[in-house]
Every structure is written in structure tokens, then in C-alpha cells.
Amino acid sequence: MRALLQRVSEAQVQVDGQRIGQTGPGLLILICAMQGDTEAEADKLVSKISKLRIFRDEAGKMNRSLADIAGSALVVSQFTLAADTSRGNRPGFSAAAPPDEGNRLYQYFVQALQALGISVETGEFGADMQVSLINDGPVTIWMES
User: Fold this and answer.
1) Domains located in the chain, CATH noted
2) pTM for the model
3) Which stretches in the chain have pLDDT values below 50?
4) What is the DSSP letter of 96?
């Protein structure tokens, strides 16, 4: 699985002009299941993301995790994280998991984060979404399982 984490002051996702998910201080997590991914890859990312110390402590240093700050997450599926740009000018996305499997792993990822006590809202898998955010820092981190 691939994830792009953005530490945010706030973020929201809309479909057809209607807000369907949002978060206050915490993370915007763009997530993509890749061909061959399993729940083990999702579990690995969930564990790492939940413990990642990228939030400021009292001294202003990145020393706190999402759980430490009682932050929340907005998780949005984004198959374009699977883009292969090695040939030509049009990215290929064949490395992404098929839609049914991608959705299953996306839902699994969300439930695994929630099981750790993290408040999670989501986008809509496969929808044309508009995502807006205020990136805090900015802090943006790329992760792969």
C-alpha cells in the first residue's frame, strides 16, 4: 500500500458540492492499495501512521503522534498514487489493485485506524472528489508498506 500523509490544521472532502468528510487537527491520509496487497500491508501502515511522531510538543519539536494529540484523520482513496510515469507522458495505473480489492483494503485500513481509537472520516471510494486542506508546517510524508 502507498500513503501520502499531510499534517493538517483542517481538511475536507466534497462530492457533488456536498461535504462528506472532514478533520480538524490531524492527518489527511491519501491511500492506494497496490496489486498483491493484503491486510498485512494495511496493518503495517496503520501501525506506523498511528505512532509516527510528526506533531509538535511543548518545545515545538516533532515529537508527538496522532494518538498523543488526540487528533483525527480524513482518509481518502487515491488510485493515482500508483502512477507509473517511467514511459511517455501519460501515467499508467496498472500497478493499482483492481477496484473491488482496492475498496476492500481501503475499508479495512479505515476500520483498523478506528480500532486504535482514532476518529476517522472518509471520502467516497471511486468518486470524483474535491479535497481541500490547510497543510500544517507544511509536513507531507510519503509511505509504502
Assistant:
1) 2-138 (3.50.80.10)
2) 0.95
3) none
4) B
